[in-house]
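Thought: the user asked what Ribonuclease HII looks like in 3D. I have the sequence; next I should run the structure tool and report back without guessing.
Action: structure_tool
Action Input:
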Amino acid sequence: MHEVALAARGLGPVAGVDEAGRGACAGPLVAAACILDPPIAPELAGLTDSKRLSPAARARLEPAIKSVARAWAVVAVEPAEIDARGITHANLSAMRRAVAALDPAPGYVLVDAWRVPGLAVPQLPIIGGDAAARCIAAASVLAKVARDRIMVDHDTRWPGYGFAAHKGYGTRAHMAALARLGPAGCHRMSYANVRAACAADTDDEGAR
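Observation:
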Protein backbone atom coordinates (compact mmCIF):
# COMPACT_ATOMS: atom_id res chain seq x y z
CA MET A 1 0.00 0.00 0.00
CA HIS A 2 1.22 3.51 -0.82
CA GLU A 3 0.83 4.83 2.72
CA VAL A 4 2.92 2.01 4.21
CA ALA A 5 5.80 2.74 1.81
CA LEU A 6 5.63 6.48 2.51
CA ALA A 7 5.54 5.97 6.26
CA ALA A 8 8.55 3.63 6.02
CA ARG A 9 10.46 6.47 4.34
CA GLY A 10 9.64 8.80 7.22
CA LEU A 11 7.12 10.83 5.23
CA GLY A 12 4.17 10.26 7.53
CA PRO A 13 1.75 10.65 8.95
CA VAL A 14 0.04 9.94 5.63
CA ALA A 15 -3.49 11.22 5.03
CA GLY A 16 -5.95 10.20 2.38
CA VAL A 17 -8.58 12.59 1.02
CA ASP A 18 -11.64 11.96 -1.12
CA GLU A 19 -15.02 13.48 -1.91
CA ALA A 20 -18.64 12.48 -2.36
CA GLY A 21 -21.39 14.23 -4.29
CA ARG A 22 -19.48 15.78 -7.16
CA GLY A 23 -21.87 14.28 -9.70
CA ALA A 24 -25.07 15.08 -7.81
CA CYS A 25 -27.32 17.99 -8.74
CA ALA A 26 -28.70 18.58 -5.24
CA GLY A 27 -27.12 18.72 -1.82
CA PRO A 28 -23.57 19.50 -0.77
CA LEU A 29 -20.25 18.21 -1.97
CA VAL A 30 -18.57 16.53 1.00
CA ALA A 31 -14.85 15.87 1.38
CA ALA A 32 -13.14 13.85 4.08
CA ALA A 33 -9.52 13.38 5.08
CA CYS A 34 -8.20 10.56 7.25
CA ILE A 35 -4.91 9.40 8.76
CA LEU A 36 -4.69 5.66 9.39
CA ASP A 37 -1.51 4.38 11.00
CA PRO A 38 -0.27 0.99 9.74
CA PRO A 39 -0.93 -1.80 10.35
CA ILE A 40 -4.61 -1.60 9.52
CA ALA A 41 -6.82 -2.45 12.49
CA PRO A 42 -8.91 -5.65 12.25
CA GLU A 43 -12.05 -3.54 12.72
CA LEU A 44 -11.44 -2.19 9.21
CA ALA A 45 -11.49 -5.58 7.48
CA GLY A 46 -13.11 -5.21 4.08
CA LEU A 47 -12.33 -1.50 3.79
CA THR A 48 -12.22 -0.41 0.15
CA ASP A 49 -13.66 2.24 -2.17
CA SER A 50 -17.01 3.30 -0.69
CA LYS A 51 -18.73 2.79 -4.05
CA ARG A 52 -17.91 -0.93 -3.83
CA LEU A 53 -19.41 -1.27 -0.36
CA SER A 54 -23.02 -1.85 0.57
CA PRO A 55 -24.78 0.76 2.72
CA ALA A 56 -24.64 -1.71 5.62
CA ALA A 57 -20.88 -2.16 5.21
CA ARG A 58 -20.32 1.60 5.09
CA ALA A 59 -22.46 2.03 8.21
CA ARG A 60 -20.35 -0.58 10.01
CA LEU A 61 -17.04 0.89 8.89
CA GLU A 62 -17.72 4.57 9.53
CA PRO A 63 -17.63 4.46 13.36
CA ALA A 64 -14.74 1.99 13.24
CA ILE A 65 -12.73 4.39 11.06
CA LYS A 66 -13.44 7.27 13.43
CA SER A 67 -12.43 5.11 16.39
CA VAL A 68 -9.08 3.86 15.09
CA ALA A 69 -7.94 6.77 12.90
CA ARG A 70 -5.19 9.00 14.22
CA ALA A 71 -7.15 11.92 12.78
CA TRP A 72 -10.13 12.51 10.52
CA ALA A 73 -12.13 15.49 9.26
CA VAL A 74 -15.26 15.98 7.17
CA VAL A 75 -16.13 19.21 5.31
CA ALA A 76 -19.28 20.10 3.34
CA VAL A 77 -19.55 22.71 0.59
CA GLU A 78 -23.13 23.87 0.15
CA PRO A 79 -24.96 24.35 -3.18
CA ALA A 80 -24.75 28.16 -2.93
CA GLU A 81 -20.95 28.01 -3.05
CA ILE A 82 -21.02 25.39 -5.80
CA ASP A 83 -23.28 27.64 -7.87
CA ALA A 84 -21.17 30.73 -7.21
CA ARG A 85 -17.70 29.26 -7.70
CA GLY A 86 -18.21 26.05 -9.72
CA ILE A 87 -17.95 22.38 -8.83
CA THR A 88 -14.19 22.10 -9.42
CA HIS A 89 -13.53 24.99 -7.04
CA ALA A 90 -15.86 23.37 -4.50
CA ASN A 91 -14.14 20.01 -4.90
CA LEU A 92 -10.62 21.35 -4.39
CA SER A 93 -11.63 23.77 -1.64
CA ALA A 94 -13.36 21.03 0.34
CA MET A 95 -10.32 18.77 0.06
CA ARG A 96 -7.99 21.56 1.20
CA ARG A 97 -10.23 22.35 4.16
CA ALA A 98 -10.50 18.71 5.18
CA VAL A 99 -6.71 18.24 5.11
CA ALA A 100 -6.17 21.52 6.99
CA ALA A 101 -8.56 20.35 9.73
CA LEU A 102 -6.49 17.26 10.56
CA ASP A 103 -4.72 17.23 13.92
CA PRO A 104 -1.95 16.18 13.80
CA ALA A 105 -1.18 17.65 10.41
CA PRO A 106 -0.11 15.09 7.82
CA GLY A 107 3.37 14.91 6.38
CA TYR A 108 2.08 13.58 3.06
CA VAL A 109 -1.33 13.44 1.37
CA LEU A 110 -2.70 10.82 -1.01
CA VAL A 111 -5.54 12.12 -3.18
CA ASP A 112 -8.03 10.16 -5.24
CA ALA A 113 -7.27 11.27 -8.83
CA TRP A 114 -6.85 15.01 -8.15
CA ARG A 115 -3.87 17.28 -7.63
CA VAL A 116 -5.02 19.81 -5.04
CA PRO A 117 -3.38 23.25 -5.35
CA GLY A 118 -2.53 24.97 -2.10
CA LEU A 119 -1.82 22.00 0.14
CA ALA A 120 0.93 22.76 2.63
CA VAL A 121 2.50 19.29 2.34
CA PRO A 122 3.58 17.01 -0.53
CA GLN A 123 0.83 15.08 -2.28
CA LEU A 124 0.38 12.21 -4.70
CA PRO A 125 -2.74 11.93 -6.88
CA ILE A 126 -3.64 8.28 -7.48
CA ILE A 127 -6.09 7.19 -10.18
CA GLY A 128 -8.44 4.78 -8.46
CA GLY A 129 -6.86 5.77 -5.18
CA ASP A 130 -9.88 4.84 -3.10
CA ALA A 131 -9.20 1.21 -4.01
CA ALA A 132 -5.39 1.46 -3.85
CA ALA A 133 -4.78 3.23 -0.53
CA ARG A 134 -6.57 2.42 2.72
CA CYS A 135 -6.43 6.01 3.96
CA ILE A 136 -8.22 7.21 0.79
CA ALA A 137 -10.75 4.38 1.11
CA ALA A 138 -11.41 5.44 4.70
CA ALA A 139 -11.88 9.05 3.60
CA SER A 140 -14.27 7.94 0.86
CA VAL A 141 -16.41 6.07 3.40
CA LEU A 142 -16.49 9.03 5.79
CA ALA A 143 -17.46 11.43 3.00
CA LYS A 144 -20.11 9.13 1.54
CA VAL A 145 -21.78 8.29 4.86
CA ALA A 146 -21.77 11.93 5.97
CA ARG A 147 -23.29 13.08 2.70
CA ASP A 148 -25.92 10.34 2.64
CA ARG A 149 -26.94 11.35 6.16
CA ILE A 150 -27.36 14.95 5.02
CA MET A 151 -29.51 13.86 2.08
CA VAL A 152 -31.77 11.79 4.34
CA ASP A 153 -32.25 14.93 6.44
CA HIS A 154 -33.01 16.88 3.26
CA ASP A 155 -35.70 14.31 2.42
CA THR A 156 -37.49 15.33 5.62
CA ARG A 157 -36.95 19.03 5.05
CA TRP A 158 -37.99 18.94 1.39
CA PRO A 159 -40.36 15.96 0.98
CA GLY A 160 -41.46 14.68 -2.38
CA TYR A 161 -38.13 14.69 -4.22
CA GLY A 162 -36.89 11.32 -2.98
CA PHE A 163 -33.57 12.60 -1.64
CA ALA A 164 -33.28 9.67 0.79
CA ALA A 165 -33.36 7.27 -2.16
CA HIS A 166 -31.28 8.92 -4.89
CA LYS A 167 -29.13 11.17 -2.65
CA GLY A 168 -29.46 14.13 -5.00
CA TYR A 169 -28.22 12.42 -8.16
CA GLY A 170 -30.04 13.06 -11.42
CA THR A 171 -32.20 9.95 -11.64
CA ARG A 172 -35.33 9.89 -13.78
CA ALA A 173 -37.51 9.96 -10.66
CA HIS A 174 -35.59 12.93 -9.28
CA MET A 175 -35.89 14.92 -12.50
CA ALA A 176 -39.62 14.14 -12.70
CA ALA A 177 -40.11 15.37 -9.13
CA LEU A 178 -38.09 18.49 -9.85
CA ALA A 179 -40.22 19.26 -12.92
CA ARG A 180 -43.36 18.69 -10.88
CA LEU A 181 -42.42 20.53 -7.67
CA GLY A 182 -39.86 23.08 -8.81
CA PRO A 183 -36.45 23.44 -7.15
CA ALA A 184 -35.82 22.87 -3.46
CA GLY A 185 -33.39 24.96 -1.46
CA CYS A 186 -30.68 22.33 -1.87
CA HIS A 187 -30.70 22.12 -5.67
CA ARG A 188 -27.65 23.30 -7.59
CA MET A 189 -29.25 25.88 -9.84
CA SER A 190 -26.13 26.27 -11.99
CA TYR A 191 -26.54 22.70 -13.25
CA ALA A 192 -28.02 22.29 -16.72
CA ASN A 193 -30.24 19.34 -15.81
CA VAL A 194 -31.76 21.29 -12.91
CA ARG A 195 -32.43 24.31 -15.10
CA ALA A 196 -33.90 22.09 -17.83
CA ALA A 197 -36.26 20.36 -15.42
CA CYS A 198 -37.37 23.69 -13.99
CA ALA A 199 -37.91 25.02 -17.52
CA ALA A 200 -40.01 21.96 -18.33
CA ASP A 201 -42.18 22.77 -15.31
CA THR A 202 -42.62 26.35 -16.56
CA ASP A 203 -43.48 25.12 -20.07
CA ASP A 204 -46.08 22.73 -18.67
CA GLU A 205 -47.72 25.53 -16.70
CA GLY A 206 -47.84 27.71 -19.79
CA ALA A 207 -49.59 24.97 -21.74
CA ARG A 208 -52.36 24.58 -19.15
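Thought: the tool returned a structure. Summarizing for the user.
Final Answer: Structure for Ribonuclease HII predicted. The longest strand covers residues 14-20. The longest helix spans residues 134-157.
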